[in-house]
């Protein structure tokens, strides 16, 4: 299977089914369509660095072409994953709830700030800590901002948040496992990972899909909440 074939099997069919199920409407459609562009712009330099560094890579014959260090199909993934996760969230997120306790903003922002510091420390150590450090140091600051700005809103919307992150993460863990162990579409360097695996999937890969889905879900929930828009004004 090629990387393009991976998209055709694992991403496009469930995306189309979820869109038919969710039937997105105008009030929430703008943020849903904007999120893939944000993900694309934010993830592109990070991903190019990882491939350049040799944290992960792609065997010859599995990709169509490369733009920079990253295959075209990887850029497509930056767009398709937020669309897939967001399509499920369109169905899960009901009416915006009243804001939760304001303490959630302080506690949530503080916890993610500690994880950001941990990521920087892991980056400084390098070697087998590099991949995990890159994930924490690059994505945790996003969560600091999200929770400091609207942690009370995210806490109030915690049920769709948890389900909206958990379900696509479990699915993408399975798809990632299949791509690595069954098809060899991409590989993960043992030199830059801790060697901790669950069901054959590296811990860092599990963290990657968890964090990227978390960024998408939290970003959409905040964009869809009227109180968040009032705070921006």
Written account of the structure:
- The protein is mainly α and 233 residues long.
- The chain has eight helices and six strands; from the N terminus they run H-H-E-E-E-H-H-H-H-E-E-E-H-H.
- The strands form three sheets. Strands 1-4 form a two-stranded antiparallel ribbon. A two-stranded antiparallel ribbon has the order 2-3.
- Helix 2 (26-53) runs antiparallel to helix 3 (72-92), helix 2 (26-53) packs antiparallel against helix 7 and helix 4 packs antiparallel against helix 5.
- The longest helix is centred in the N-terminal third of the chain and has 28 residues, at 26-53.
- The termini are far apart.
- The model has no long low-confidence stretch (mean pLDDT 96).
**Number of beta-strand segments:** 6
Order of helices and strands: HHEEEHHHHEEEHH
Largest sheet: 2 strands, antiparallel
- Strands of the widest sheet, in order across it, are 1-4
Q: Overall pLDDT, averaged?
A: 96
Number of helices: 8
Secondary-structure class: mainly alpha
List keywords for this structure.
233 residues; mainly alpha; two-stranded antiparallel ribbon; 8 helices; 6 strands; globular; Lycopene cyclase domain-containing protein; membrane; transmembrane; transmembrane helix
